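User: I'm writing a tutorial on reading structure tokens. Could you give me a worked example: one chain, its sequence, then its tokens, then a sentence or two explaining what the tokens reveal?
Assistant: Sure. Here is the example chain.
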Amino acid sequence: MRLGDIYAIALEHGIAKDPRGKDGVNDELNRLRESFEEMTELQKTAFDKERLSNPYADTRILNGDPDKDIKSLIIGIDMEVGEVVLADRLREKNGAPELVFAHHPEGKALAGFYNVMYMQADILYKFGVPINIAESLIEERVKEVEKGIMPLNHLRTVDAAKLLDMPMICVHTPSDNCVVDYLQNLMDEKSPRLVRDVIKIIEEIPEYKHAIENNNPPKLICGSDRHRVGKIFVDMTGGTEGSKKNYERLAIAGVGTIIAMHMTRDHIKEAEKFNLNVVIAGHIPSDNLGLNLILDKITEKEDIQIIPTSGFYRVKR
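And here are its predicted structure tokens:
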């Protein structure tokens, strides 16, 4: 399978599972294209033009020819310089892998990943937060995240891949979209009554079972496992954590329980303040679930050798 086809399938599947729906994704792309036409020539030169067709700034081909035939890949949650060198060492010994497949963004995908966060406004709106409030909350948070990313050495890992002539891609939000779609549908189908029932459902998923075996179980960090769940909000996509002010608005909108990958101390305090139940399913097992769903789609048409590393645990469905 061509590298470009692997990338396209991951992107298309992420769009298909986007919580905004295809119309919401197309609306965002159309608005961005209109803004692009209004830019000066200098601004257009600096603009990442892939954003005009790809709604996820944190998902990119980082190195390699899209036409290159790929029969094997190494995949992990964090694929940095060490993992790229590992891939090259394995390739030298065994002829595989031919592609480094990362989840967390690197290179230009890391430098601009905060642009993905704007989708969180549409997600909040879907759960009952007025869109004007949702947009104001996310704009404030995006600026915080952008400032935090600015001093990072974005190109370190990609430079290593280029020196070793190792093709590399990263697939972040499309994978996270798949997690949200899978867990939200599962919760809607199972209709758990108590928070403890939510945890039991998560514990039965293979990726989370594997995490439990490695001392990383789902945990309730706010509320009580004896509480009734109310409306469940699976909050796992949109780049990174949103504004801590979201929790008041979600509580007003009727959300009773949040299922998240992770949550910072300040966010936990806000969730507690508004009596929300918060279940942390786990960051790495959740990322595993999303990547597995993406890989299942990629390997539907053609078998590819998959080498797991960096926290990735392969489960086929």
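What the tokens reveal: Strands lie at 60-63, 72-76, 100-102, 168-170, 219-222, 231-235, 255-260, 277-280, 305-308. The first strand starts at residue 60 and ends at 63.
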